[in-house]
Amino acid sequence: MHLHPARGYNDAMTPQIYLIGPAAGGPDALKPALAAALAQPDTVALLLPRGERSERDYKDLVKALAPEAQAAGAAVLIEGEPGLVRMLGADGLHVAGDVAALREALSALRPDFIVGAGGVQSRDDAMAAGELGPDYILFGPLSGTISTAGRELARWWAETMEIPGVLSDPDAKGEGIDAEGCEFIGLGLRAVEPVR
């Protein structure tokens, strides 16, 4: 499985939704929000950050939520060691670390799984990650609001590079959220509201 923009994507099209789960909370608390978010036609991925959870709680969360997301056609991405991807039945790994961790994940998981990069703070960081060929690069935080500098970095990436970008703005709500030309918009699981 791969995380690619929809065929025919261009700047005039709406970016696809890359959901970002919260840093805390168990499966029962998140299931209603997840069901509503998965009803959105452009939802293509769900990242389940480990956040504040213990290892056991994190594994339980992924095992409980991944099948529902996958049944709706969304790729499920997790954090942690590459071996957890297979063990938990996820579709890929989000690496918010250094280039060495990204290289290790790509070596262990390609070509069968998605490997994405996050935690980039500069053009140099983005280019170093991009040279390794991840499936996407995420710009911005996994919680909170993206900074102006993060937006500018995402815009620069979208205008100059071919690897898909995710502009992550988890606290964003409402219509007309600007992805700065990126193929995907990262929204917090609770921020996605059903289409009326």
Give a nutshell description of this structure.
This protein has 196 residues and is of the alpha/beta class. It is built from six helices and eight strands, in the order βαβαβαβαβαβαββ. The longest helix has 17 residues, at 55-71.
Main traits of this protein?
alpha/beta, TIM Barrel, 8-stranded parallel β-barrel, 8 strands, 18% strand, globular
* Total separate domains: 1
Mean of pLDDT? 91
Main beta sheet strand tally, sense and closure: 8 strands, parallel, barrel
Based on CA atoms alone, the radius of gyration comes out at 15 Å
Helix proportion range? 25-40%
Question: Would you give the CATH topology?
Answer: TIM Barrel
Helix and strand content put the structural class at alpha/beta
In percent terms, what proportion of residues is strand?
15-25%
Which CATH architecture?
Alpha-Beta Barrel
How many helical stretches? 6
Q: Which sequence of strands runs across the widest sheet?
A: 1-2-3-4-5-6-7-8
